[in-house]
Amino acid sequence: MNRVGIVAKPRLQAAAQHLVQAASWLEARKIEPVFDPESAALADTAGAAGRFKALDKDALAAQVDMVLVLGGDGTLLGMAGRIGRAGSDIPILGVNFGSLGFLTEVTLPEMYASLEAAVTGKAEIDKRMMLHVRVDCGAETLADRVVLNDVVVTQGALSRVIDLSVSVDGEFMMRIRADGIIVATPTGSTAYNLSSGGPILHPHVDALSITPIAPHTLTNRPVVVAGASVIRIQPFTHDEQDEVFATFDGQTLLRMKSSHVVSVRRADKPLRLIRASSRGYFQVLREKLKWGER
Questions:
Q1: For site-directed labelling of 142, which of 111, 117, 223, 285 has its Cα 20 to 30 A away?
Q2: pLDDT averaged over the chain?
Q3: In sequence order, what are the beta bridge partners of 161?
Q4: Tens digits of per-residue pLDDT, 225-281?
Q5: Residue from 52, 87, 64 nearest 2 by CA
Q6: What does the DSSP assignment read for 26-61?
Q7: Where are the alpha helices (DSSP H) in the chain?
């Protein structure tokens, strides 16, 4: 391992000193730290002005051997998408500032032990399915994304219930009236999918969940399909006032029309997520979901 990218949650001042310390720790082991510009600016406030190399996040994802994320699950999701778009299979280590995260499950006191395991090749690594998502209008591609958690097609803030047509592997599945629909990976099953009544899928299960959001007909229930499935969603808007949006990992948003089709399939490469060796998946679930507490 020769270069490690370091990315912090934007404007997370509490991370500034830890950025400098982590970079110095890597340098002491003959590993070059590389920041994204915003994280480099944070490190500058801790007395490291101009000391470390910086690359924009897309370039960083393509040119380093590992990424260290300091922040929360949203920060990790943003970098995961960039790693996926770069076609890279570099591992990512998420360190959480605050409560334990589903993805950033390494706590600050565990950071250096996890870093040591990562740079020496002893870390436990989970391979997490990612999704390749396209939004097409005829022959034109409007969006092409790689996401870790989910793709959501939903109504706007002031819109009424929307109509959606859903097919799986070319077979018509349903036409649904609802506030929207979620296609989630096992990793994303504990995010928006869970709060909408969808199932929790263990990360090692090769499957996708399709979950309606507040369906007009209560018999429209979540469905679990094979991980190799190709899912297509098409909205039916009735007039120009209707607002329908597709969101990708909650990071970007695209307004849709009836002529637009969302296609979702498994990405070519999984994300390699470095795990905290001190806890297993079910322990994370127990802590985050407060299982067994009154």
A1: 223
A2: 92
A3: none
A4: 999 999 999 998 877 677 899 999 998 899 999 999 999 999 999 999 998 777 788
A5: 64
A6: HHHTT-EEEE-HHHHHHHIIIIITTTSEE--HHHHH
A7: 16-28, 37-43, 57-63, 73-85, 111-119, 192-195, 281-289
CA dist 63 → 33, 55, 222 (Å) = 12, 9, 39
Separation of alpha carbons 270 and 80, rounded Å = 10
Give dist(CA 230, CA 225) in Å, integer.
10
Percentage, residues of the chain above pLDDT 70? 97
Tokens 């939903």 locate to 154
Amino acid identity of residue 228, one-letter, is A
- Tokens read off for 15: 């991370």
- Asked if residues 4 and 30 have their Cβ atoms less than 8 Å apart, the reply is no
Query: 10 Å Cβ neighbour count for 108?
Result: 14
R_g of the chain, CA atoms, integer Å = 20
Tally Cβ neighbours within 10 Å of residue 98.
Answer: 12
| 20 has pLDDT over 90 | yes
Handedness of CA 264, 249, 80, 99 (dihedral sign): negative
Phi-psi region of 103 (alpha: psi -120 to 50; beta: other; left: phi over 0): alpha
Residue 114 to residue 93: CA distance in whole angstroms: 8
Task: State pTM to two decimals.
Answer: 0.93
For residue 159, pLDDT over 70 is answered with: no
What is the set of active-site residues? 73
Q: Give the residue among 232, 140, 226 at the shortest CA–CA distance from 185.
A: 226
> In order of start, what are the domains of the chain with their CATH numbers?
3-129+270-289 (3.40.50.10330), 131-266 (2.60.200.30)
> What are 185-210's pLDDT values in tens digits?
999 999 999 999 999 999 999 999 99
